[in-house]
Specification:
There is one protein chain. 57% of the residues lie in helices and 7% in strands. By secondary structure, the protein is α/β, with parallel strands linked by helices. Among the domains are: 237 residues, Rossmann fold; 202 residues, Rossmann fold, CATH 3.40.50; 68 residues, no CATH class; 105 residues, no CATH class; 71 residues, no CATH class; 87 residues, no CATH class; 196 residues, Serine Threonine Protein Phosphatase 5, Tetratricopeptide repeat (Alpha Horseshoe). Strands 15-14-20-16-19-18-17 form a 7-stranded mixed β-sheet, with helices on both faces. The protein has a 6-stranded mixed β-sheet with strand order 2-1-3-7-9-12, with helices on both faces. α48 packs antiparallel against α49 and α60 packs antiparallel against α61. It comes from Streptomyces lonegramiae.
Length: 1426
């Protein structure tokens, strides 16, 4: 007897727990979850999740029938069908087969047509299909009088299915029991106790007959209804799951003491000690020990430096609303790779404004009990971390290390974790024959499963299977192990699955300057030559390699190269370092030793000596052959070695046989290259993948022409690999780098610098990898860096600063130092430059810290810059580090500072560690309490809290749930709140799933909200992905929806299910071609289609080109298409230039469109940028240019040419000081001018303060004071005085007073808030005031001090109940009452229902009342912690 084959079996689980006309059965939802987990859990059955269909709340019977029919068609081994809900009977039918019905959400007692007749299910199951066995489990009751519980049917007459087993919860005319407070229904509870707990002393597999008998005995013992069963043929012997309580019989004792012991059910103490000690010994072994010359061998524990780890939060940078590009099959997320590089470099965070990293020590991370996902870029020390962890774990933790590559085949077979891990362990660390680990290593111990290098599972399907297996294994509660997984940055889809399986994501940070020093001291601590560590660091410093060496692998390479020849200076860039190291590998001691062994293996073969000589002469070619294969994802490198040596033998006309030692000869042949090592299994791997990429680039570069010709197809192909994102980007970059070394007069880099912004960004990436650059190229790069520093809005900002952080060239450092010291430069630019310089060494870093303190202590510095500067100092080892931490703490607690900046300060404070971590947690909890914080801001704060520790989760959850309860919270925000709540507390996940499901399926919800809910549901509940996919696909295909809603749904579907990316790309392209598609939607659909299917980019480019270059279209439409076309096709931008020039000169074009044309032209090349600047200068200076257009063009001119601020300063100053300027334009001009010319701040602030005092319109006055505080936070007291003066004016209306009070409160501070509450309360209670203004004041008061709204209820009630009051105000008042809390919901509902039913009211206002009623209904029911 054996379990049904999971690969060819199917299951359909149906549950209905909520009814419109029947009593609810809340426990049914839990039934489905527990049963699904059991069937898909590898330790019980291991049914793939895609083979298990879960139908919750099916609205129509056809949904159930279709799902069963599909499963019948696909099942070959076993089909399992389960239903839980109300059972109904149709007594009016004489035919027994028609009587039994399964209830649906809309079913009623006497309306069988609203239920699903079981006959329809039975007919599907009886269809002659391939399933050998069919199991039906019914948990429902049969009652003809009152369907208050659940019942079954007349089994033998109604449910018999040929060749199947039917297990029912009760008899034909009896009821089943669903205790109201129980987690599961009575019958399913007994079933799950057997499935999950097992049957002690029972067989290895639990059959249906055994399950029936055990359930029957339990129900008899408890007095519950007994189950019934019906089996045809031998179906009773169908095994359903493994018996978890099964204990196999031990084999007999060995016949003699000399023989090996047979495997036992539990590892002996000797076995455990051997396992632990072996792994600790490996921690002492240096990963590249065989690569070192001489007798000295540093112990890895002496060299290893514990790196800091950055918490990445629940959703990191892949939240759907950020519209990041979906992941690609077979490639890593470019956005995530860039973020990893920023972390490696200590560069600014992705938004270019603040650092969002939260650093923690390894000790603090290991102190928490979570499963860990640890990622990092190439060479960041992931495998080193895994090797060292056995020395860091507590005594009761037993480490067991496997590689993801060896685990993947066993995971694909859905093996239980005990069997899969035991099978994947290498080096004979477990007793011979032990095929299954015990659940626990010792009675009070815990396994720590260390899985290394998920990214080295090369097959996309294999990697997805492994992630799926991890997800399935970790979903169970009370696991007897902890899992730690390492990887290069994973795809967003894999990351999402791992995080929602329960893993916490951390990124390894690079060495700090102090860490690099400790690495050098550890490496050379026993070196016979004195001062070697200092000499090594000096060579790094002289070669500008200090930043490069912060990557642990590169530090190791540099140390090995240095030690091989200490008197030879190290190369001055990364490329040369790799070149010397790979030469060292090929010529090293290990390679020579292997070569001698290879010659001995070949001696016995015909022509062996000749073959050995040729192999020695050509082994570099073999290394290149293996490198190309490895870089393309090949793992069977010995196959390529075999092919190579046979080709060589054929060329030499020296045929060779295949002796028994042939496999050993292939191992030696591959290792003779010096580039690979045995992978612990039956093959070899490169010492590091980056070595293979480097050599593969050498092979490909040899096929390139000597002259760079951008018009040649071969060059266009390699550039396309970089830009299109279709795979092999890293090798493509290295090919270009190697070309600059092979042809030092190449025009490649100068040509790139004359092209688009994307080409110029590529120059920085090539310089990072060691491209050979002339002084003119470096000068041009530095000019671009300085320009970008001044314009944070530039799309190149993040990439340029990342490059500057990693590139240690003296010219780059000098550019940063010049920008930092430039008093005329914007403060943001100076702080950014100083932040990067703090990562340098010596006096450069000290000078940067000194400037940062100047900025931090300046009261006029913007809060964002102050936080950024303090965070940079806190990350250094400077003496003022603690002072910087205090500055961060002060900012995080300062109520006058914006919530976003306070959150950033708290995150930076947490990175300091120690007692600062608890302080940061407390600050974040205080931020969650901040009155008036929007749902999105609270979500962001909660996600920051998730990164730190679960210590404050209970309080955070209460605050988030209160926000979700507020009817004023939009459905958009409620989705995010539910997602975060589920992430904070898995016990609340079911509640969040139900709410997201309701939002996703509600026809009254807008399509874009339903799409967002579907994506969130897939995040929160991976088991519901298929349901989310179905909803999203229906939205995409629904031709009645707006095109933009369908586009958004398609993009989200591609993010949820990467397997549908190609399908969605085709759907989007079809939408773009539709004649009903507007221009904006057509362009968006084409752009997103190209992003999803890079291989089909050309069709989208052609579509946009046809639109952009069609002179019959309006110029604004053509311009919109042109801006996207330039981004999509950077290789062919010249065809868009005429359209941009036409837009710059065309009369009557909207100023914003003209400015956009100038920006786009400036991105095409430096030459085009110069022409755009000249056109803008002339138009700005022209006397007839309207002021509004002059302002828009001046702002664009400042972005294109920040170094020439004189050209725009006069225009901006005129807009600020003109008495006729529009207030919005005045504010916009003021902020732009100060960011460009900091010295203008006092004059601008004085002008704005004067207008704030004189402006007659309260709204415009508020704009002025808001601008003042944004420009100069030190002016808060002056702004407060102006507001108090205006409030003291008796002539101010209630509408004006409430605006001033709101602004006063937003300045922060307890005194200002108390004043605002008093003023706003007086506005609300003033019965003589305008009703609209009173309600506005109530809204303001609720945002500032929600608790004070309780005393306003009577005043609001008086407005809502006053039938003489206009209906629109009554609706607003009633809605505001509902937002006071659940206690007021009923009263608000009655008021709104009265308005909605009052035919005297305008239809629009009645609709508004209905909308507010729906908001009240959408409020989630109260939830209690699980």
């Amino acid at each position: 007897m054996h379990l049904p084959d999971p690969a060819t079996s199917r299951a359909v689980l149906i549950g209905v727990h909520d009814f419109e006309h029947l009593p609810p059965l809340k426990s049914v939802a839990n039934n489905l979850n527990r049963l699904r987990d059991a069937l898909t859990g590898p330790e019980l059955w291991g049914l793939p999740k895609e083979h298990c269909t879960v139908l919750r709340q099916p609205q129509y019977g056809v949904q159930v029938v279709d799902a069963i029919a599909e499963a019948v068609d696909k099942a070959e081994d076993t089909l399992f069908v389960y239903y839980a809900g109300h059972g109904l009977t149709d007594q009016r039918s004489d035919d027994p087969s028609y009587q039994f019905c399964l209830s649906l959400p809309g079913s009623e007692h006497d309306a069988p047509h609203k239920a699903l007749r079981y006959m329809e299910v039975r007919e599907q199951l009886r269809r002659p299909r391939g399933a050998l066995r069919k199991v039906v489990v019914l948990d429902c009751c049969f009652s003809g009088q009152a369907a208050v519980a659940m019942g079954a049917s007349l089994l033998h007459d109604e449910v018999e299915i040929e060749g199947a087993y039917v297990l029912a919860s009760s008899g034909a005319n009896t009821r089943s029991w669903a205790p109201p407070d129980a987690e599961l229904t009575a019958f399913t509870g007994e079933l799950m106790s057997l499935v999950e707990g097992g049957v002690p002393d029972g067989p290895e597999l639990l059959t249906m007959d055994l399950l029936y008998e055990k359930i029957r005995l339990a129900t008899v013992r408890k007095g519950n209804q007994q189950p019934h069963s019906l089996a045809t043929k031998t179906a009773g012997r169908i095994p359903l799951v493994r018996n978890r309580a099964y204990v196999p019989e031990l084999p007999p004792a060995p016949p003699s003491p000399g023989q090996d012991h047979a495997p036992t059910a539990r590892l002996s103490r000797f076995d455990l000690d051997r396992l632990i000690e072996h792994q600790k010994d490996r921690a002492n072994s240096f990963p590249y020990e065989d690569l070192l010359h001489g007798e000295r061998r540093p112990r890895f524990t002496e060299v290893y430096v514990r790196q800091q780890m950055s918490a990445q939060g629940m959703d990191g940078d892949h939240r759907a609303e950020r519209a990041s590009d979906p992941a690609r099959h077979g490639d890593w997320s470019r956005a995530r790779e860039r973020e990893e590089r920023r972390a490696e470099a200590g560069a600014p965070a992705a938004d270019g404004k603040r650092d969002r990293r939260v650093s923690q020590s390894l000790k603090s991370v290991l102190a928490s009990p979570e499963h860990l996902l640890v990622t990092g870029g190439p060479g960041m020390g992931k495998s080193s971390l895994i090797s060292q962890l056995p020395r860091e774990l507590p005594e009761n933790a037993v480490p067991i290390r496997v590689t993801a590559r060896h685990l993947a085949p066993h995971a694909a077979k859905h093996k239980p974790w005990q069997e899969a891990i035991a099978a994947a362990v290498e080096d004979d660390l477990l007793p011979a024959g032990l095929r299954r680990l015990p659940d626990r290593p010792t009675p009070d111990g815990q396994w720590v499963i260390l899985i290394d290098a998920l990214d080295e599972v090369s097959g996309v399907r294999d990697r997805e299977d492994l992630v799926d297996w991890i997800d399935t294994v970790l979903r169970r509660q009370d696991l007897p192990f902890r899992m730690i997984l390492t990887s290069r940055p994973p795809t967003p889809a894999d990351r999402r699955r791992l995080i929602h399986a329960g893993m916490v994501h951390y990124t390894l940070e690079p060495f700090t300057a102090d860490g690099l020093k400790r690495f050098a001291e550890g490496w050379f601590h026993d070196c016979p030559e004195p001062d070697q560590a200092e000499r090594f660091l000096a060579q790094l410093r002289d070669g500008h390699l200090l930043d490069v060496a912060k990557v642990p692998l590169l530090a190791t390479i540099a140390a090995i190269v240095f030690e091989s020849s200490p008197d030879t200076p190290l190369p001055k860039q990364r490329f040369g370092l790799y070149e010397q190291f790979l030469t060292h590998l090929a010529e090293g001691r290990s390679s020579r030793r292997v070569g001698a062994g290879l010659r001995r293996l070949l001696d016995g073969l015909p022509h062996g000596e000749r073959l050995a000589d040729e192999i020695r002469a050509r082994r570099l070619w073999l290394g290149q052959r293996l490198a190309v294969a490895a870089s393309e994802g090949e793992t069977d490198l010995l196959r390529h070695a075999d092919a190579w040596v046979r080709e060589l033998a054929k060329e030499l006309e020296a045929p060779i046989p295949r002796p028994p030692t042939w496999r050993a000869m292939l191992f030696s042949l591959a290792e003779y290259t010096g580039l690979v090592t045995r992978d612990g299994g039956n093959n070899v791997r490169f010492w590091h993948l980056s070595f293979a990429e480097h050599l593969a680039a050498q092979v490909h570069e040899q096929d390139l022409p000597d002259e760079f010709d951008p018009k040649a197809a071969v060059w266009g192909s390699w550039l396309a690999r970089v830009f299109d994102g279709a795979g092999q980007e890293e090798v493509a970059r290295l090919v270009l780098v190697r070309h600059t070394h092979s042809h030092q007069d190449s025009t490649l880099l100068p040509w790139l610098q004359q092209q688009t912004d994307r080409h110029q960004t590529l120059v920085g990436e090539l310089l990072l990898r060691g491209a050979k650059a002339t002084d003119s190229v470096l000068d041009a790069f530095c000019d671009g860096l300085r320009r970008v520093l001044f314009v944070p809005e530039d799309e190149r900002y993040d990439d340029m600063l990342t490059t500057a952080a990693l590139l240690g060239d003296p010219k780059v450092s000098a550019t940063l130092a010049s920008a930092m010291a430039d008093d005329s430069a914007p403060t943001t630019a100076r702080v950014a430059a100083a932040q990067l310089l703090t990562e340098r060494s010596g006096s450069t870093a000290r000078t940067a810290v000194e400037y940062l303190w100047t900025a931090i202590d300046d009261p006029h510095t913007a809060d964002a810059d102050r936080v950024r500067g303090a965070a940079a100092v806190a990350r250094t080892q400077h003496d003022s580090r603690e002072r910087a931490a205090e500055a961060l703490l002060e900012t995080a607690r300062d109520e006058r500072v914006d919530i976003a900046q306070r959150r950033s300060a708290a995150e930076a404070l947490a990175s300091v560690g120690g007692r600062r971590l608890a302080q940061a947690q407390a600050c974040l909890v205080d931020l969650l309490r901040s009155p008036g914080a929007s749902g999105q801001k609270r979500v962001a704060v909660a996600e920051a809290l998730v990164k730190l520790s679960p210590a404050s989760f209970d309080e955070a959850l209460a605050i988030l749930e209160a926000q979700a309860d507020d009817p004023a919270t939009s459905a958009f925000d409620r989705i995010d709140l539910m997602r975060v709540i589920a992430g904070l507390d898995h016990g609340r996940r079911l509640h969040s799933v139900e709410m997201l499901d309701r939002l996703m399926t509600s026809p009254q919800i807008d399509a874009h909200i339903r799409a967002k809910a579907a994506a969130a549901l897939a995040d929160v509940a991976p088991d519901r992905v298929q349901l989310s996919v179905a909803v999203l696909r229906n939205l995409v295909l629904n031709s009645r929806l707006d095109i933009d809603d369908r586009i958004a749904a398609a993009e989200r579907l591609a993010q949820v299910d990467v397997g549908r990316q190609a399908e969605m790309a085709d759907e989007l392209f079809q939408l773009a071609q539709s004649p009903h598609c507007g221009l904006s939607d057509r362009v968006q659909a084409a752009v997103k289609s190209a992003a999803l299917a890079p291989g089909k980019r050309k069709r989208c480019v052609d579509l946009l080109a046809a639109t952009a270059l069609n002179p019959a279209r309006a110029l604004e439409d053509r311009l919109y298409a042109v801006t996207r076309l330039g981004d999509m096709d950077p290789q062919n931008t010249e065809r868009v230039v005429p359209v941009l020039h036409e837009a710059l000169r065309a009369p009557g074009l909207h100023p914003n469109r003209r400015a956009e044309a100038a920006r786009q032209l400036g991105r095409l090349s430096d030459g085009h940028r110069a022409r755009a600047i000249e056109i803008l200068r002339r138009r700005v200076a022209a006397p007839g240019t309207p002021p509004g257009e002059a302002l828009a063009l001046a702002k664009t001119l400042a972005q294109l040419s920040p170094e020439r601020s004189d050209d725009v300063e006069a225009v901006l100053l005129r807009a600020v000081e003109s008495p006729f300027a529009d207030p919005y334009e005045r504010r916009d001009a003021a902020e732009t001018l100060v960011s460009l010319v900091p010295s203008a701040r006092p004059r601008v602030v004085a002008t704005l303060l004067r207008h704030a005092m004189e402006e007659p319109t309260a709204l415009y006055a508020r704009w002025m004071v808001d601008a003042v505080v944004a420009i100069d936070p030190g002016q808060r007291e002056k702004v407060a005085r102006i507001l108090r003066l205006r409030l003291a004016n008796p002539g101010e209306t209630v509408a004006s007073r409430r605006r001033y009070a709101q602004t006063l409160a937003e300045l922060g501070g307890a005194q200002e808030r108390a004043e605002a509450v008093r003023i706003l309360s007086a506005c609300v209670t003033d019965a003589t005031a305008d009703t609209d203004a009173r309600l506005d004041a109530a809204d303001n008061l609720a945002s500032i001090a929600p608790k004070s709204m309780g005393s306003m209820a009577d005043y609001l009630l008086a407005i809502a109940a006053d039938e003489t009051c206009p209906a629109k105000y009554r609706v607003r008042a009633a809605a505001r009452i509902g937002r006071l809390g659940r206690a007021h919901h009923e009263g608000a509902r009655e008021l709104l229902e009265a308005i909605a039913a009052d035919e005297r009211c305008d239809a629009t206002h009645r609709d508004d009342a209905q909308a507010e009623l729906r908001k009240l209904r959408d409020v989630p029911p109260p939830v209690h912690p699980a």
